[in-house]
Amino acid sequence: MGDKKLQSVQVLLFSVIREQAGIDATTLHLDPGEAVSAGALLERLAATYPAIRPMLPLVRIAVNREYVPREHIVRAGDEVALITPVSGG
Amino acid sequence: MGDKKLQSVQVLLFSVIREQAGIDATTLHLDPGEAVSAGALLERLAATYPAIRPMLPLVRIAVNREYVPREHIVRAGDEVALITPVSGG
Amino acid sequence: MTGISNDSVWITIQEMPLSLEEVSEFLRVEEAGGVDIFLGTTRRWTETEEKAAGGKTVRRETVLLEYECYKPMALKEMHRLVDEAFARWPVRRACLLHRIGEVSLREISVIAGVAAPHRADAFTACRYLIDTLKTRAPIWKKEHFVDGNARWVEGDSAPEPFSSPDTM
Amino acid sequence: MTGISNDSVWITIQEMPLSLEEVSEFLRVEEAGGVDIFLGTTRRWTETEEKAAGGKTVRRETVLLEYECYKPMALKEMHRLVDEAFARWPVRRACLLHRIGEVSLREISVIAGVAAPHRADAFTACRYLIDTLKTRAPIWKKEHFVDGNARWVEGDSAPEPFSSPDTM
């Protein structure tokens, strides 16, 4: 069943939050037809990786490589990235 | 008599005013003890090279490689330069 | 991307050292009279006010910077920033190059460059590119100090609501 | 000159082409994290409003620029401008290089460069150097057009009373 893939969301972590979580990527599963906000997804992640919780207020969320507000609804197949304050340059 | 040199002022011309005058340098002679302002010196030069007269209002004067106001008194031995609006860069 | 011909834009993220000579060759075009190029380099000394030291200024010695990025999104944002510069100012060419991995003292981590007919626009657009890159491109810097410690540099980009592309 | 160690300042007027690579090598020091470099290049097209053409915009094609200077005074002024930049901003290194003689299309006539701990100062001081050079250094530019005509570019520096060194 290809459904498995379609029902999942890929989450990417970088920099300090990657080190705190101890992972650079994980997969979250959605129930069929489930609508989850990006913010709720963060909470779900923090339940599994409590070390990232203190950073959540600083995190911007990107879905499919675009910044989105926390109310943004994440869909199966989306690529979600947790962007702590950037410091390139 | 080394006085000859001491009684003279070297005048340098550049760019458009150099081309109008047809010279890039000339020597003006001062009477012993004569006090001439930079502005008066310009007038004297324009009497000899009338083609430069229309440009005089735009000219800044440098004496010994420093910009000076027209009232500045020029002394024998000074190097005077006529600086039309600069356009380097 | 979005109407900017590739001939006028050069964007890259790479591990190899960045070449200023190639940047100059790319930016100097007959349509431009003013070219501004910004280089970010690894600085040895950083002065910070440490709370632990009672607000005293502490001078720390860096040995290298380490950069990490979310590459596909960083490239996308960099293209967007350059597109914005072209839309706002009479820019003829622009480049935005970032190095990742380890960058030693004096070496170049980022180059932002803009060629414009006149200098004021070159300066303004170049400044725009580097300033916005530093708040929007998902790139992170870790400082490695001479004492063996390391820390992720705290960026100062706001969390959300995320600013529209036009926010400066 | 006036308290600036020669190690931190590089000023020259030369007929030979200017080397950006040497500028980069000079400016990238361990004390600086931001380097801004401005290049003035020979632009091919100039648009001017010609009174003779009823205020219409006329596009002229340049084949080369020719620079002339009052060299000892120009160097003195360039040193002064750099001294002012050091006095005003936390500058670590600065260069101001001007080419004279003929400068072909795309070639560099001037390089102003500043290295500072942080980028804002690098941009501001670099802009200051090139802006003030263009009003104070006794250097002149003659445009040679493709039709065989030539004209001295009308600078926009005010005649007198000459501004104090602190005027921007």
Please tell me what the overall shape of chain A is: globular
CATH homologous superfamily of chain A, by name?
Beta-grasp domain
Instruction: Quote the beta fraction of chain C.
Output: 35-45%
Dominant shape of chain C: elongated
Multimer state: heterotetramer
Show the largest interface: C-D, 34 and 34 residues
- In DSSP terms (H or I, runs of 4 or more residues), the helix count of chain C works out at 3
Highest CATH level, the class of chain A? Alpha Beta
Helix-strand category of chain A: alpha+beta
CATH architecture of chain A: Roll
SS element count, helices of chain A: 3
Main beta sheet of chain C, described? 5 strands, antiparallel
State the order of secondary-structure elements of chain C, H for helix, E for strand: EHEEEHEEEHEE
The first-level CATH class of chain C is given as: Alpha Beta
Quick structural summary:
By secondary structure, chain A is α+β, with helices and mostly antiparallel strands. Chain A has helices at 3-6, 15-21, 38-48, and strands spanning 8-13, 25-29, 36-37, 60-63, 66-68, 73-74, 79-83. Chain A has one domain (2-83): Ubiquitin-like (UB roll) (Roll), CATH 3.10.20.30.
How would you describe the overall organization of this protein?
The complex is a heterotetramer, with two copies of chain A (89 residues) and two copies of chain C (168 residues). The relative contact order of chain A is 0.27. Chain A has helices spanning 3-6, 15-21, 38-48, and strands spanning 8-13, 25-29, 36-37, 60-63, 66-68, 73-74, 79-83. Chain A has a single domain, classed as Ubiquitin-like (UB roll) (Roll). With 89 residues, chain A is an alpha+beta fold. Chain A is globular. In chain A, a hairpin with a 2-residue loop joins strand 4 and strand 5 (66-68). Chain A contains three helices and seven strands; from the N terminus they run H-E-H-E-E-H-E-E-E-E. A five-stranded mixed β-sheet of chain A has the order 2-1-7-4-5. By secondary structure, chain C is of the alpha+beta class. Chain C has one domain (3-48, 58-151): Alpha-Beta Complex (Aldehyde Oxidoreductase, domain 3). Helix content of chain C is 26%, strand content 38%. Chain C has three helices and nine strands; from the N terminus they run E-H-E-E-E-H-E-E-E-H-E-E. In chain C, the strands form two sheets. In chain C, strands 3, 4, 6, 8 and 9 form a five-stranded antiparallel β-sheet that branches. In chain C, helix 2 runs antiparallel to helix 3. Chain C is elongated. Mean pLDDT of chain C is 90; it is low at 1-5 and 160-168. Chains in contact: A-C, B-D, C-D. Chains C and D meet through helix 1, strand 2 and helix 3 of C and helix 1, strand 2 and helix 3 of D.
